[in-house]
């Protein structure tokens, strides 16, 4: 019963509509009425700029971290539970937060794609794997300025890290990694279409680098 209450709490944490709160408080708009219509960091970068996009991204990552950390409220998993039970609970809490972000009860169940919250969840469960994923994200973002492409490749990096680089043996964790990669690709279908057509928006970072390059051509 306590586990169920924590999972519900994790969902409510994930449901906190960070991008919506910021867009309404500082700009008087509903972020979902602009750009891609998503209430996530990528669309916030696109519509409100890098400053507020970064704030939303950090907050969404924290939602995953905090949700997974709720297992600390159950002493059994800290003192007597085995690592498999603890990991399963952490995955359940994290996924509940991701579902909350994608379908937030506080925002009429219309949220974001959950990538940042997923990253926060993975960071809490296995930091080394999270670092490898964020490394791919930052590298692709630096080279292309496409948050969508960076998110997709970071998502694909997760099962690569879990199954081959770190060779995790826990079956549930391996399945989770594969499902995350599939989920990220499925939720970014429109972005993939825009990338293939060459019309995907770049976020407003590293603009001065690009201007220097254009001047030097």
TrEMBL record:
<keyword id="KW-1208">Phospholipid metabolism</keyword>
<comment type="pathway">
    <text>Lipid metabolism; phospholipid metabolism.</text>
</comment>
<feature type="transmembrane region" description="Helical">
    <location>
        <begin position="115"/>
        <end position="139"/>
    </location>
</feature>
<dbReference type="InterPro" id="IPR003811">
    <property type="entry name" value="G3P_acylTferase_PlsY"/>
</dbReference>
<feature type="transmembrane region" description="Helical">
    <location>
        <begin position="89"/>
        <end position="109"/>
    </location>
</feature>
<keyword id="KW-0812">Transmembrane</keyword>
<keyword id="KW-0012">Acyltransferase</keyword>
<feature type="transmembrane region" description="Helical">
    <location>
        <begin position="146"/>
        <end position="165"/>
    </location>
</feature>
<keyword id="KW-0472">Membrane</keyword>
<keyword id="KW-0444">Lipid biosynthesis</keyword>
<dbReference type="GO" id="GO:0004366">
    <property type="term" value="F:glycerol-3-phosphate O-acyltransferase activity"/>
</dbReference>
<keyword id="KW-0594">Phospholipid biosynthesis</keyword>
<dbReference type="Pfam" id="PF02660">
    <property type="entry name" value="G3P_acyltransf"/>
</dbReference>
<keyword id="KW-0443">Lipid metabolism</keyword>
<feature type="transmembrane region" description="Helical">
    <location>
        <begin position="171"/>
        <end position="187"/>
    </location>
</feature>
<protein>
    <recommendedName>
        <fullName>Glycerol-3-phosphate acyltransferase</fullName>
        <ecNumber>2.3.1.275</ecNumber>
    </recommendedName>
</protein>
<comment type="subunit">
    <text>Probably interacts with PlsX.</text>
</comment>
<comment type="similarity">
    <text>Belongs to the PlsY family.</text>
</comment>
<keyword id="KW-1133">Transmembrane helix</keyword>
<keyword id="KW-1003">Cell membrane</keyword>
<comment type="function">
    <text>Catalyzes the transfer of an acyl group from acyl-phosphate (acyl-PO(4)) to glycerol-3-phosphate (G3P) to form lysophosphatidic acid (LPA). This enzyme utilizes acyl-phosphate as fatty acyl donor, but not acyl-CoA or acyl-ACP.</text>
</comment>
<feature type="transmembrane region" description="Helical">
    <location>
        <begin position="52"/>
        <end position="77"/>
    </location>
</feature>
<keyword id="KW-0808">Transferase</keyword>
């Amino acid at each position: 019963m306590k586990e169920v209450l924590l999972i519900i709490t994790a969902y409510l944490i994930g449901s906190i509509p960070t991008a919506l709160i910021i867009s309404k408080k500082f700009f008087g708009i509903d972020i979902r009425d602009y750009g891609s219509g998503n209430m996530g960091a990528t669309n916030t970068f696109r519509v409100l700029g890098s400053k507020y996009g970064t704030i939303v991204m950090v907050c969404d990552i924290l939602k995953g971290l905090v949700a997974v950390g709720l297992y600390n409220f159950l002493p059994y998993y800290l003192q007597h539970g085995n690592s498999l039970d603890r990991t399963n609970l952490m995955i359940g809490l994290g996924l509940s937060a991701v579902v909350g972000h994608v379908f937030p009860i506080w925002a009429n169940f219309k949220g974001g794609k959950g990538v940042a919250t997923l990253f926060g969840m993975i960071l809490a469960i296995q930091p080394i794997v999270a670092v490898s994923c964020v490394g791919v994200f930052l590298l692709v973002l630096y080279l292309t300025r496409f948050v969508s492409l960076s998110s997709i490749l970071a998502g694909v990096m997760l099962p690569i890290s879990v199954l081959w680089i770190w060779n995790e043996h826990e079956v549930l964790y391996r399945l989770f990694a594969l499902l995350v990669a599939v989920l990220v690709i499925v939720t970014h279908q429109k972005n993939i279409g825009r990338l293939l057509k060459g019309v995907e928006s770049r976020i407003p970072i590293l603009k001065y680098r690009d201007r220097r390059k254009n001047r030097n051509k």
